[in-house]
Amino acid sequence: MIRERIEQAILKALPGVSFVVERPRSLQHGDYSTNAALVGKVDASELAAKLNIEGVERVEVVGKFINFHLSRETLIPTEQKVPQLYADKKIMVEYTDPNPFKEFHIGHLMSNAIGESIARLLEVAGAKVSRANYQGDVGPHVAKAIWGKMQKPAASWGEAYTYGAGEYENKKADIDAINKKIYEKTDAEINVLYDAGRKESLERFEEIYKTLGTKFDHYFFESISGPKGLAIVQAHPELFVLSEGATVFHGAHTRVFVNSQGLPTYEAKELGLAEIKRDLGCDEYVYVTASEQNGFFEVVFEAIQKVFTDLAGKLAHRSHGMMRFADSKMSSRTGNVITGESLLTDLTKAARNREDVAVGAIKYSVLKSGSGKDIIFDPEKSLSLEGDSGPYLQYALVRARALLRKAKEAGIEADTTDAPTEASVLEKVLVHYADAVARAAKEMEPHYVTTYLTELASAFNSWYAQEKVIGGPHQHYGVFVTSAVEKTLAQGLHLLGIPTPEEM
Q1: Is residue 73 scored above 50 in pLDDT?
Q2: 160 and 69 in a common domain
């Protein structure tokens, strides 16, 4: 990669200095820029004079910054290899995590989009990735759903949960008793309802995963992690202490790990899950959840790393914000709510029954912003073909593929024999694909790829409008560049988990 050659040349001239090489904000300032002279406290002109880099046509100094203009030959598209930042690393990414007996809500949809993209980015950067899904098949929400189903047998499980959650304060004793019986498996009627609800929920989730393009390698359940977590807490009284009838951990803040009924809380279940994951022997474990759980994981990670000291430094939490509609926070705890599943259904209808377009629209909306940021979802804008949307990227890909088909029919081969003497803006964008992917993989931030692909699609559409490919003066090179755009868009969309249609 040309960027690596620039970095190596600077390191040779300034050993031991920490600097950055990045794209300038404007193409007028070249294809790459560095702050090496500024941070190295040396004369920029003197440093620039020492940098003789293959593929760089011109080096210019602007104040304390050095800009690099690539040669025409270097800007001719070639296959770009993503740096193998995670070579030989085994990384587990846990995401989606819907709870049986409840709806697949917006948060699960966001977690899936982000987690799947992170997994793909890590893979292209050399990691051996295992995808994990942790589901709450026991706990108060299950008791609420079963109690609701017992009152309203004709209700769906989602409706039963909503009813049970709404009546919990009035029926707390009854629902808590059901919760205990679920753990103990002592009630035949409850056992039958539990098995039926769990099976139905998990089967429906699998249909949604297929639509979203996700296949999990591991499924973990709270019914398994709970007893393990309880045993861990009991085995470490030096860390987990009694307080007002419950067992707590005093970390960054105090959290309950075993409640007054002797049942493991979500915190204890995470301990059990950590033990299960640890036995699979990964180098790093990534958790993708809503930012509402930041405080939860701050303390839980602290507890995990005190119990399992070999996991220190191996746990990472990537959080996401909330999706809002008309400034209203989505919540599965209230009635009359837009769920993740209903959003997919509604958007598919709006996209004229194109499920692939609906999935692209949703995933782009989720992935275009940095982690932790809330997003305002506008269904109409999300389906727009005018830019800043998933369908816009999909349409650019479809346009490139259509052009390649026409060129094939016309017998126009792709080659560089008739390349113009000046590089286009499109070529200057194409050269940065691997850089964008590498940064996204390193920081586990898919939005760098989303931003890059949007810029690429815009540059291609402008080039397409101005350049006469078939029958033009540079038709062979035009097909060559179009082929590079098609491959780059297809690869980039794959990394985002966005479908790549042949036609729209």
Answers
A1: yes
A2: no
